[in-house]
Fold this protein.
Amino acid sequence: MILQGKHIVLGVTGGIAVYKAADICSKLVQAGASVDVIMTEAALAFMTPLTFQTLTRRPVSNDLFKLLDSTDMAHISLAKKADLIVIAPATANTIAKLAQGLADNLLTTTVLASVAPLVLAPAMDADMWAHPATQANVATLAARGAVIIEPDQGRLASGRMGRGRLPSTEVVLGAVRQTLGRQGPLAGRRILVTAGGTQEPLDPVRHLTNRSSGRMGYALAEAARDAGATVTLISAPTGLPRIPGIEHVAVRTAGEMARAVLARTGQIDILMMAAAVADYRPAVTAMDKIKKADEELFLELERTEDILRSVASLPEGQRPRMVVGFAAETSNLLANASEKLSAKRLDLLVANDVSAADAGFDVATNRVVLLSQGAEPEALPLMSKFQVAEQIWLRVQRMWSERYG
Ligand code: CTP
């Protein structure tokens, strides 16, 4: 996990969204980061340092002139050891000070004294956010390399509706992880991941689908983002939350997924086909709900397009430089998987036995075997789907550097 062992400075400034900063702080700590919280005077009016002290098990700083030890000024020591500074919520006032390079409190001084990446999560009244002064300040900071998380639209503290809400903890943590991973092993790679089980409609209220939860594909997309890649996720309906920092493309059927993938194959480096794509669809989709009758009902099914086979037959230059497929099997895992590896011209195939209770559909863990041409199959132990995703990217990255340097 990218946050493990990282030093994060969490700046908390004075706005009603301060209470959400406690959740952000807690999630950073849970992900393995050591978090130093700096509160401004205005933030102290909304919440006491005890909350953050308890969550981080570290002192909370707010005094510019307090010596951390006999030789270190707090702002210098925090500034230098930070791997990243995130300010959430960031008020219009603090944003203005940062844009001007002011250093009038411990937080602004720490930012000025640090070369660590800066992530800002502005939260304020909608008119303050929309004000040309704030917009100009945000643009200045973005031009200097700060990552700005766009505030959410919704009900504000004033009771009015507008843009100015602090986005969810997941969005803030997503931006932090993505920023930390910018120079990661997949930096510069454009990756397309597919996920979920496609749905093939029978009539307006029924469809044929499969038990894929989409979790493996989502974990792959998230892990690729954390490793520095530019990620597009083409997803069949899953009910999983959107992953911040990546492009989402929603599809439903195998046909829609095929069109969405084939429209992008020329612009990507790596295709990761984790979706469970239907092999058959109803030959006709009824316009109206099919009514029951006394006699039996037979469904006629026709083949869908095999997306990986279509990708395999693209001319050189149109094909992504690496193509990874998945094989969900219930028997003869290795034999079936190696057959798919060559039939679909794959660089790597991830095979899993979906009949196992702790792997495959609807569970948080997976146990897979990695197959590539000319290499012994590599069986990975049982791990969380996110850890499996990280291992798959590690293997992809190794193969990529062997081939392309
Ligand atoms: N796949 C695809 N297009 C389809 C069906 C599957 O691109 N119409 C991809 C899947 O995303 C996966 C791989 O092919 O990466 C293998 O899928 P799987 O269903 O295990 O294999 P199939 O080739 O469909 O063979 P079978 O169902 O007969 O085992």
Q: What stands out?
A: Residues 190-404 form a domain with the Rossmann fold fold (CATH 3.40.50.10300). The longest strand covers residues 322-329.
